[in-house]
Specification:
By secondary structure, the chain is mainly β. It has one helix spanning 2-17, and strands spanning 22-38, 41-58, 62-72, 81-94, 98-100, 104-123, 126-145, 149-160, 163-164, 167-182. It is elongated and about 55 Å long.
Length: 183
């Protein structure tokens, strides 16, 4: 994880020094779905409220950024509490912008991510507080306005190496909307 963070920070520094990229920050709100597989079968943790922040560099064809996501795993439960937290390095490529009524440009993107997930759960069936590797892909659209603001909607699919008490996190899916500000 340190190597990924170090590589990203060096790339960020070099790119901003060359003025090839703009720096951006963003926030998002999302709905997530997690699937676990254990000795008693498959368990789905549906409709997890998710919030995230990101910061990185962007140009007309690509963007690279670090992101942090917080997921309240059992917000409607009275017998369980828990949260998922992810920290990932992301890279995405854009299509050519398509002007929509001269109001904004629409761009499609596809990319990948890798990083860490921490799952902290307390329930009647046990406790877990483990860190694991996660990786996956994302795709979506960006509405880029002439202002330094852009709106974004996307879908992220992740796998992880999480295993605790013979239970694996087999997949994590996220549908999100967000806002970004360029500097």
């Amino acid at each position: 994880m340190r190597k990924v963070l170090y590589t990203f920070l060096v790339t960020l520094a070099l790119c901003t020094q060359a003025n090839a990229y703009d720096v951006f920050i963003g926030g998002e709100a999302a709905q997530s779905w997690a699937q676990f597989k254990g000795p008693d079968g498959t368990y789905e943790n549906d409709e997890i409220t998710t919030y995230g922040v990101k910061a990185g560099v962007v140009d007309t064809k690509t963007r690279m950024y670090l992101s942090y996501k917080y997921m309240d795993a059992f917000e409607d439960s009275t017998t369980r509490t828990g949260e998922y937290q992810t920290f990932t390095a992301n890279s995405e490529a854009f299509t050519d912008p398509q002007s929509i009524f001269n109001l904004f440009d629409l761009l499609f993107f596809v990319g990948g991510h890798a990083g860490a997930i921490n799952i902290n759960v307390e329930a009647s069936f046990g406790e877990s507080d483990k860190l694991a590797f996660m990786y996956g892909a994302q795709a979506g659209i960006i509405a880029d306005f002439d202002l330094p603001i852009s709106l974004e909607a996307g879908y992220r699919f992740s796998f992880s190496t999480f295993n605790d008490n013979d239970t694996d996190l087999t997949k994590l899916q996220v549908a999100y909307g967000g806002i970004n500000i360029r500097f």
